[in-house]
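Troubleshooting entry. The earlier prediction with adenosine monophosphate gave an output that would not parse, so I re-checked the input for stray whitespace and re-submitted. Clean input:
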Amino acid sequence: MNADLHCHSNVSDGVLSPAQAAARARAAGVTLWALTDHDTLAGQDEARQAAQALGMSYLCGVEISVTWAARTIHIVGLHVDPNCAALATGLRALCEGRMQRARAIGDALERLGVPNAYEGALQYVTSPTLISRTHFARYLVKQGMAASISDVFGRFLGDGKPGYVPHRWASLADALNWIKQAGGEAVIAHPGRYPYTPLQYDALFGQFIDLGGKAIEVVTGSHTPDQYQEYADVARRFGFEASRGSDFHAPGEGRADLGSLPPLPAGLKPVWERWL
Ligand code: AMP
Ligand code: MN
Ligand code: MN
Ligand code: MN
């Protein structure tokens, strides 16, 4: 089983269409795939049809932006019903918030001496409903303001940097409630990436469990190999099932390509087993 249950298409901040991403996943040997665009399900029909035509098993997915303890975290929903009204309504509100935040990011960059960044980012937006910091980052790289996407985040758009605009996303309870209503399972995305203290991490995991959450990503393109082991230990300690996903966005951009990561560490229960 080569499961890749976290990646993005041009329906959010990736660059491949859902069908192109499916083909890339298949070519890399993925057998169970989920497209998990940020805060939207608009790519799910195309992804599912392409996956099935290529002989891959498919889970409908989404990566929901959540504010917890004044920081942004991501909750992946797997095996969600793309026609669930509660989920769709919640995601629509998040996308509207993204539009407002994007204008504020444009204003912040203007004050830093980068004119028309909002209009510039719009040139990189590939879906009518969804604008992301990644689109700003691609524009700033194109303008020669930074050497790479991660350079943009390190200097301008990352948490606490001068172009960062704080934003209130969904609550953890909302995200888990929407996923539950849509018949899916919630997974804490790339848990190693958050700026929490050990005490806050334990509180996050405890609240997630209290709200019905059962799984965390262990092997992800956002973790180092040391973190695979660290979060395997977390999974054992809290009784979490484990997930695996590249968090692929674009060829040559970022850390991991589709289907390229090592398998889960031995002894963990894969979250996907329930759907096989
Ligand atoms: P947003 O959801 O619009 O706030 O944008 C978050 C997205 O920006 C993430 O999903 C990543 O694709 C990208 N991102 C965040 N931090 C970094 C980073 N340090 N390097 C590269 N991409 C990043
Ligand atoms: Mn992204
Ligand atoms: Mn994420
Ligand atoms: Mn992601």
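This one parsed fine. The beta strands are 3-4, 32-33, 57-58, 61-68, 71-78, 185-188, 215-220, 241-245.
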